[in-house]
Amino acid sequence: MSRIIAGLAGGHSLVSVPGTGTRPTTDRVKEALFSRLEAMDLLSNAAVLDLYAGSGALGIESASRGARSAELVENDHRAAQACQRNAELLNKLRGSKGKAVSVHRSKVETFLARPGGPWDLVFLDPPYPLSESELADVLAELSGKLSAGAVVVVERSSRSPEPCWPLGVERFSERSYGETKLWFAEPVEPPAPEL
Questions:
Q1: CATH code, 122
Q2: What is the number of domains present in the chain?
Q3: Burial profile 58-77: b = 16 or more Cβ within 10 angstroms, e = fewer
Q4: Which Gene3D superfamilies does the entry mention (predicted)?
Q5: Is 79 inside any structural domain?
């Protein structure tokens, strides 16, 4: 069972997704990821987007550690229900500080086609069967909805190739943890056209 590691809800267990359709981020990977994000000072008051959220563990962890808001996007009915229950726990603990976590039961592509953002921190943990070209399309749609100092974290199999970053987004780091690889990217100014 996955848990919230630190912050306001630290130590609380997360409702997991029934069945085998999702691949939760391990606590080991989550601890390493959030240690890095905190060292980069990316969580405090951040607007977070958790795409292909599964149980919502990454977005919930962000909100527990001080993010202003976390939007969880999940299309699978059972996973969206788990997200909702986990969001309710965090929102209840925040009490008078207001609702921090919201859940959107939607395909990622449909959600990104709507007005929204800008987001400061975005997690993408798509199912492994999602093709590289589909991931590239999602990243392209996302690129115009990032704040200036945003960070995008893509979690894939360590056997997957590097994502195809859209113009205006560049990888600045990567980390491997056994079978899991994390890619870190940020928005950059596109190069000026040659005259």
A1: 3.40.50.150
A2: 1
A3: bbbbbbbbebebbbbbbbbe
A4: Vaccinia Virus protein VP39
A5: yes
Which residue range(s) make up the domain with 102?
27-187
**pTM tops 0.85, yes or no:** yes
- Peptide linkage before 118 cis (omega within 30 of 0): yes
- List the chain pLDDT tens, one digit each, 195 residues: 687 888 877 778 888 887 645 567 777 899 999 999 999 999 999 999 999 999 999 999 999 999 999 999 999 999 999 999 999 988 888 776 666 899 999 999 999 999 999 999 999 999 878 999 999 999 999 999 999 999 999 999 999 999 999 999 999 999 999 999 999 999 998 666 776
Alpha-carbon span 134 to 137, nearest angstrom: 5
